[in-house]
Amino acid sequence: MPNLKLVLLGKENTGKTSIVLRVTSNSFQDQNTTIGAALTKLDFGGGIIQVWDTAGQERFAKLAPVYYRNADLVIVVYDITDRLSFDRAKVLVQELQQDMTVLIILIGNKKDLESEREVCAKEAIQFANQRQLRFLEYSAKFGSQSDMLNLIKQCAIEVVGNEVKQKPNQLEKFEDVRWNKNKEKKETCC
């Protein structure tokens, strides 16, 4: 079973760390700004997804390629209430697609702040479609842990499937993933 590397990128204060916290512990708390990067691991029964939560401040922008190098999945996060964060997300996607072939998930976070929205969902969907990205609007504050885990799982299965076409039994094992024994198991669709 292969181990995978997942990297979160985006402008500061978009909620990258809050998304990681929602995924790993199904909780939310206001976070301090990440300095450099933080590593968390998701155990999926025989394999690990390393989750790299990177700093979004401009002064750390030059370090981003160090973290996303050899990534299997990249989540690019923007804040739906911050137009500049969406502009930065578009630049990040362009850089990623120039530098490497990687599956990218675009997440518009802070969906709970709909009344303050600056980035139209239709615009983000159009960008995601043009760039062949997966897309989700999400609220790390109130969102479903299982929705985010399912999205990551589906993308990881796709990555593993592309890497092991010669070994289909490996894909079957991956589909039997058990994320965390202690986490709730809801069947939801996004």
Automatic annotation (TrEMBL):
<dbReference type="GO" id="GO:0003924">
    <property type="term" value="F:GTPase activity"/>
</dbReference>
<dbReference type="InterPro" id="IPR001806">
    <property type="entry name" value="Small_GTPase"/>
</dbReference>
<dbReference type="Pfam" id="PF00071">
    <property type="entry name" value="Ras"/>
</dbReference>
<keyword id="KW-0547">Nucleotide-binding</keyword>
<keyword id="KW-0342">GTP-binding</keyword>
<dbReference type="InterPro" id="IPR005225">
    <property type="entry name" value="Small_GTP-bd"/>
</dbReference>
<dbReference type="InterPro" id="IPR050227">
    <property type="entry name" value="Rab"/>
</dbReference>
<protein>
    <submittedName>
        <fullName>Rab11</fullName>
    </submittedName>
</protein>
<dbReference type="InterPro" id="IPR027417">
    <property type="entry name" value="P-loop_NTPase"/>
</dbReference>
<dbReference type="GO" id="GO:0005525">
    <property type="term" value="F:GTP binding"/>
</dbReference>
